[in-house]
Design goal:
Layout (H helix, E strand, L loop, with lengths): L10 H11 L1 H37 L5 E4 L14 E2 L2 H6 L4 E12 L4 E6 L1 H5 L7 E4 L7 E5 H7 L6 E4 L2 E9 L7 E4 H8 L4 E2 L1 E6 L3 H11 L4 E4 H7 L9 H29 L1 H9 L4 H37 L9 H27 L3 H5 L3
Parallel strand pairs: 4-9, 6-8
Antiparallel strand pairs: 1-11, 1-12, 2-10, 3-4, 3-11, 5-8, 6-9, 7-8
Helix pairs in contact: 1-11, 2-9, 2-11, 2-12, 9-12, 11-12
């Protein structure tokens, strides 16, 4: 008679056999777990990617100091134009300042893009300047410069007409991305459209070398303003440092764990009911309670690992598709969150399997064998 020491009772063989014996149930469980992994990775990847990409674009402008109003958001598109444009002349007069570029940052809600109203000469002077792929600078108040990413995604070329902020513009130039916004329009035009006459939302400042000393000089002009170095701004632009994003990320991760918990709980509960006689046979052959528990938890772990791998693969596939279809959308998937998503899947699945497993392990073999 066979016993638990027989090779056919190898835990790995039994787990594989049980999964293949119910392929539809196994596939559905794997898909549910993979959805949790995809949900976690995509939500975190999107928030991290957008925040990091925005900070790199701000850094690419070429300034080393940012001057904003006291209550301004670190996301410039959500900052009001409350600073007088003339304040830029006071900043420019300071001995440590090399260049100042007054900028009005606007969000086009319809196109969901950030638009900068700029004084072209001053903004361009902050760094090595715009790198034009085609076209050139503004020649009329209704001209706009687009970066190459948004031009590619919307199939724009020089001379095309586009509606921004409810106003028609003509593409006069296409430049390399990384200068803060996706579109650039003349500062006066931006002020007229937004009703912000002679006002701006941020001053980009380039110092002559001593950033901290220049920052202190600017603060003396108006101590209530927010004056940050670019290095300080870069440290702030992290999804973990943004209180507005934390509840959102935690909520979405929590939903993913709940999905995994419920799916595995229902799966294991019905699985235990279906296999009551089988469990009774195993116990009659000498399987202990811990042996039954290890077997069922092993099946859960196998499903979770397979589901996690499928989820990771589908996440990268989704990322590749989005990069082709929506180039402006940035997704950043880190090794830390890959491990975190798998760990969360294991935690949720294990929690869902505990009660059904304990119930199965407590079956009396005589009662289980009599179960129909």
């Amino acid at each position: 008679m066979s016993d638990v020491n027989d090779p056919q009772f190898s835990p790995f063989r039994m787990i594989a056999g049980n999964l293949t014996a119910r392929p539809l149930r196994a596939v559905l469980s794997i898909l549910a777990i993979s959805i949790q992994v995809i949900l976690v990775l995509m939500i975190v990847g999107l928030t991290t990617g957008v925040v990091n990409e925005w900070s790199k674009r701000v850094e690419g402008v070429g300034a080393d100091i940012l001057v904003q109003s006291p209550n301004a958001s670190i996301f410039f598109a959500f900052s009001s134009a409350v600073m007088q444009e003339s304040f830029g002349d006071q900043i420019a007069s300071l001995p440590g300042v090399d260049e100042v570029a007054p900028t009005l940052s606007l969000m086009d809600q319809k196109n969901f893009v950030v638009i900068y109203g700029i004084d072209y000469k001053r903004f361009n002077a902050l760094s090595k300047g715009f790198l034009f792929g085609s076209g050139g600078v503004f020649t009329s108040p209704d001209d706009t410069i687009a970066d190459d990413i948004v031009a590619q995604s919307r199939h724009l070329k020089v001379g095309d007409q586009i509606n921004l902020l409810g106003h028609p513009f003509t593409i006069c130039g296409i430049v390399a991305h990384g200068k803060g916004a996706r579109f650039f329009i003349p500062l006066k035009t931006a002020q007229d459209i937004s009703g912000a006459e002679k006002r701006v939302s941020v001053f980009y400042v380039r110092s002559k070398g001593d950033t901290e000393a220049t920052r202190a000089e600017i603060l003396k002009l108006e101590p209530s303003n927010r004056v940050r170095s670019i290095s300080e701004y870069m440290t702030l632009m992290n999804s973990s440092n943004l209180p507005e994003l934390k509840p959102f990320i935690k909520t979405m991760v929590g939903i993913g764990v709940v999905i995994s918990f419920l799916v595995v709980f229902l799966n294991m509960h019905t699985l235990v009911l279906e296999r009551t006689r089988e469990i009774g046979i195993l116990k009659a052959l000498g399987f202990t309670r811990s042996g039954i528990a290890k077997l069922l938890l092993g099946e859960t772990l196998a499903l979770t690992i397979i589901g996690s791998l499928v989820g990771i693969g589908l996440t990268y596939l989704t990322e590749a598709i989005l990069k082709q279809t929506v180039p402006t959308l940035q997704i950043q998937i880190t090794a830390q969150w890959l491990a975190g998503a798998v760990l969360l899947a294991i935690v949720g699945a294990t929690a869902g399997a505990i009660y059904p497993t304990l119930r199965a392990a407590s079956y009396d073999p005589v009662v289980a064998l009599a179960y129909e």
